[in-house]
Protein 1
Amino acid sequence: MAKLTILGSAAAVPDMDHENVYMVLEGKKSALLIDCAGSPLARLRAAGVDLDKLGSLIVTHHHPDHIYGVPSLLLGLRMHGRRALFDIFGTRENLAVIWGIMDLLGWQKWPNPFPTGRHEVKMTEGALVIDSDEFEVRATPTEHSLPSIGLRIVSKATGGVVAYSSDTSPCDAFVRLAQGADILIHESTGDYVGHSTGTQAGAVAGHCGARKLVLIHYPIDADLKALRWEAEKEFGGPVDLAEDFAVYVF
Ligand SMILES: [Zn+2]
């Protein structure tokens, strides 16, 4: 089994029904968080994720809407009684920002500590991030206003592939990374530098040969029907608009 649950779907401005973008992948034995916004403990519990299975977090870049939930996550796991190692993966800049925030918060002195692993993701195409019993995750630098990575996640149980663009302009390196994805999760912020429109996300899905496109990181006040239609027209395959708590099995 491999399951992806969207925990948040909105671009930088969230609302009551759409937290900022993050998601969780679950296998039989392990779970992996990608980016960390919103209220992670509440959302993970509401999504039915066993917190003892959650062993790692990959941060795609350090814009606040992708990382502001990290202190809450780490505090919540302590309160939950975690003792096992928790691994955090990100680029050198991402890790420096996260550790800087946590140091400002004095987390070394918090009660009930558990060990954390700090793992730098190389900014090279197809860099191996995680190779576990259940998942292989690779990353590629994308085109954003900060160092950012797109991800390709392969379930070793099913062979299914999910690719996630994070924030980026249309990017050839990400198209190569996401080739043949069963589910392509692509941002659709709009016509801004370092971001993509619905049409561009649709084109990327076509270039990747993706089986399904899921639009995410969209402005909640946009014309969402039009956004989806633009992507569908360009892609020609099935397009979903990500919703919080949507589940994809792959
Ligand atoms: Zn960003």
Protein 2
Amino acid sequence: MSGHSVFDVSGKRGYVTGGGSGLGRAIALGMAEAGAAVMVSDINQEAAREVAEEIRVQHGEARSLAIDVSQKDQVEKLIQTTTEELGGLDFAFNNAGILKLGKPEDISQSDWQEELNIDLTGVFLCCQTAGRYMIDHGGGKIVNTASISGLVVNSGLTYSTAKAGVIQLTRVLAMRWARHGVYVNCFSPGYIRTGMTAPHLTRPEVEKEMLRQTPLRRLGEPRDLVGAALFLASPASDFVTGQNIIVDGGVTLT
Ligand SMILES: NC(=O)c1ccc[n+]([C@@H]2O[C@H](COP(=O)([O-])OP(=O)(O)OC[C@H]3O[C@@H](n4cnc5c(N)ncnc54)[C@H](O)[C@@H]3O)[C@@H](O)[C@H]2O)c1
């Protein structure tokens, strides 16, 4: 590991949900590059396996596990497998999410529920299960992926509601678990090129609008999140909890 020692995560162990693509993949690769052992988890088994293999090819330490974050028993399996195979749980990236767009007046209850189950309940289940382990084992760092959609109005109703929930869930857990040495923070990306945004970016007018809203005049790449991830999972953030780090090229300045 090169660089300042406060960012040293060598020997640290943890998982990334949604690690098979986009931001999760970048976070898993970035944490491994910085010396951590990573459980790459995704509902897409093949994608998770490929990212873990990519890490091992680069001489990092990684395993993979397919789970659905909205299922309590599967989340429990994630924590159990991570702690058994990697030997502990120092960090937890609760990053998996989906986005459905549609008019608020047309959303069905089942679509509302399905999106909340993954984007909010999934984060809750992962936080609770990882948090219990960390409380019993001297602490740890939980990092949730929220979104600027939890702060401003720029996306779907259910998605935005879930992401606002993730930001407040992060703050409440940080307050409750600080005395246990369990840190809980989140970050809020702006417009990033990933599998989630790709279907929308096929329309040039969508990309043009995202660029117009972004003062830095480019869309983010998944790697743009690695600095915030490393900060929040490393000793560099040892006096930071309950925060939402906005990584959006300035979108929310206006
Ligand atoms: N891309 C952006 O512009 C952007 C902006 C703000 C926030 N985010 C958030 O970043 C996170 C990652 O999204 P991304 O942009 O990398 O999208 P992505 O679609 O590339 O990656 C999401 C990953 O989550 C996995 N996943 C979906 N449902 C799951 C489930 N139930 N259980 C486990 N894994 C599941 C998918 O298989 C996929 O690999 C999401 O929480 C998203 O809301 C993305």
Protein 3
Amino acid sequence: MTHAATEHYRKIFDRRTREQLHVLAHIKRFMERLVGDMSFRAALSASGDNPRMVTERYGIEVDPMEMLPLWRNSYMKYRFKPECASWPLAVMWDEYMSEMLRHRDMLRSEGEMPMVNPRFHAWRERQIRRCNGELGGSAPSVTHPVIAFELSDGCTIGCWFCGLSAGGFKGYYEYCEEHAEIWRGVIGVASEMFGSAARTGFCYWATDPMDNPDYDRFLFDFHQITGALPQTTTAAPLRDEALTRRVLELFKRYGGVTNRFSVLTTNHLDQIHSAFSPEDLMGVELILQGKEALTAKAFAGRTRARKEKLRAADNNSSIELLERDHTTIACVSGFLVNMRQGRLQLVTPVPGSERWPLGYRIVAERFFGTPNEFREGLQCIIEEHMHESPPPNLPIRFREDLQYEAGDRHFHLRSRNVEHRVDDDAGAISVGDLIRRGDCTASELAVRVIADGVTALAVADLLDQLYAAGVIDEDLDDSFAEQPSERVTGRM
Ligand code: SF4
């Protein structure tokens, strides 16, 4: 059975002729050079009316004069405007990119499971709403997959910008008979419990897929069970070129989501461009992480630690301020599974902070050795941590990043990019003010307000609405936090 997101993705390529794909692949290569390579940018600006000379040197077979709005400052104002028609290659690129963005939004919907697992569905929807208000510039690109698997422990690459501060490599999860059985069992359980939302799963986190020489065998099983081939992101596409090519071959046959190579330096870009043709890389987004690249890094993990050091040295810059809006690289609102450790965690993205330096909050953790234990772990976590209403015995208060403003029988809540106006007219005591004070539990709050003559139902309804909107603070547990929250009082 094909699914909407996969179908949309495959159509992006199938509806184009071979010639159009060839042109698109070369525009893509041009854009990669533009963003990732300072000498290319310099040569291009110095090239006057003959930029073709520069692109030819790099084996790029399109004429930059046909896509001026993509790269020459004085023409950028025509982008996405009718006048852009004078530069057909710019139009072609922008159409392709908007189709890819539409696909990204469809991926977010693929994680929905209102029928098969309503509790998990409601929890994830709430995290998405919270993230839309809390994550700044990172929010639109987060697709909230419901599950991610680590097939190694730690990472051999050690990128300076690692948003997840991956630990040193300790080994990988081999594809032996026993492990293959556990793996297939675990994917089967995820599929059975999350339905088609399991298709959003992928097989790396604070790990690099290429650290596992059996990686493609795990991918193939995942595809056989869920019908979806997970996305691959690697910073080591050249480490074992045969493995990378096997992954790209699987992608060609079954792929429904673009893979990504992290490019660490301009030299690395040169090597990748010489190993793989523009067409080979059509299904691979290059994330240009080198020092010459114009790519912002999220304020989490090792990037965050580095930026804090720079800030201490009074080295602020406007670029840095821009990057502060890019708050996390974490994307999963769901389960993070390390197969080697048999560890299962419930996680969700948050802005990188002292409390959550890696840009995600760990809500709960369990360990498993068999698919049945995996199922039990999932069930327990869902039961204990995915509440549908604010838990009655926990403090109730607004998220820390929200500004509260009381009005006349209503109140406003403002975050960095969302504003809520909430009617608060059920009784004489303001529910908003009580939550704002944050000194009582949900059940104590209900007692206080109901005593004032309001119906229990109206209060419960308002609390449920606020809870579903993701404005009630759920970060109440210090068990997995780096720094305990000072605001947590009276926890039971
Ligand atoms: S960014 Fe990826 S490849 Fe680099 S250290 Fe972190 S997990 Fe490893």
Protein 4
Amino acid sequence: MTVKRIALLGSTGSIGRSTLAVVAAYPQLFRVVAMAVSSYSDRLLTQIRQFGPEAVAVRDAAGASHLMNQLGDRPIRVLTGDEGVAALAAWPAADLVVSAITGFAGLWPTLQAVRAGKAIALANKECLVAGGQLFMDEVRHHGVSLIPVDSEHNAIFQVLDRQQAVQQLILTASGGPFLGWNKDQLSRVTVEQALRHPTWSMGAKITIDSASLMNKGLEVIEAHWLFGVAAEKIAVVVHPESVVHSMVEYQDGSILAQLGVPDMRTPIAVALAWPERVTQPLCRLDLIQMSRLTFMAPDRATFPCLDLAYQALQTGGVAATVLNAANEVAVSAFLAGKITLATIADIISATLESVPNAASDSFEAVFQADRLARDAAQCCVNHWSK
Ligand SMILES: NC(=O)c1ccc[n+]([C@@H]2O[C@H](COP(=O)([O-])OP(=O)(O)OC[C@H]3O[C@@H](n4cnc5c(N)ncnc54)[C@H](OP(=O)(O)O)[C@@H]3O)[C@@H](O)[C@H]2O)c1
């Protein structure tokens, strides 16, 4: 395998750092040529010193200028603003772009990478939740490969070989830190409790989504667009050990699963190396030590975000864009201590009712729906603030 040159969007985040760990483990296979982040941090400077990219984009202008001062004479291009992040996503020297910016903000730069013909390792699920058909049309039009990094979709990607014979996709969910809790208990959880995920170590936004089960809802929508499977044929089972990452059930009754430790370095290594495989594992699952795997139905009444996502997918148009935007606003408000965890679903539900649905026939329509939904959700936050 020749050295793959990587542009890493979101290098300082949880997926970004796991990606750099994979690159560091296989220097003969991968090289990081470009990195993008939101703001300056010492962590970014350390990453630049270790991986020596040609270009870095820091969205925040003051952060970019601080970085330039820190870099002195180092021959590194520093870009800034949303345009800088988008230009970095299409960086000419990169073969593969790892899309690991969090939230809707990841859509525009990832789209630029697709339009520049780069292979995409996709962690940012919001590209598909908010951009859906339009994003997939661009992927097909530009003939780029799209390899899912999200562990569930990476698992399905590895075991799905005959689409026509699929009975259902089965996404596994850890259940998050509040598995088995009731609505009353949920209304009193603290931000600190919600950020303590039992099996996965992830960024704050996705950790809260995992606690509300919205993460699984977003993943149902993501799976629909990635694999072309209808909502009715995508099931969710709770699997607290987080070892079976997802499954495909075929019409003949066979169920194929992909297993591994709950560590994002494995799906990232799969995505970076695809269609090859790396020859040394970064983490190995000990089945004997695991000994027991459990599966149960999700509690849809206590965690209504899951059904809200199914409903948005079935409604179509920009409903999933609205759902995603309302969720981002509500999660920020929860992290800021303004609303309870249980209020997140109320805000999403109210936003879906108040923003008129429209055809999702252009990126302008998607960006407009995102803006309207953010405004509406912010009004709900103000109304429901503690
Ligand atoms: N974490 C996981 O295990 C996991 C698993 C599956 C899927 N995902 C998905 O992967 C994505 C990233 O998740 P994460 O947990 O890694 O998030 P995270 O830890 O919050 O990291 C986000 C990264 O994106 C950068 N960023 C944010 N907004 C940006 C912008 N507008 N322009 C440029 N850079 C920006 C941040 O830079 P700063 O550091 O400067 O803020 C940071 O490097 C999400 O879509 C998530 O759903 C994550």
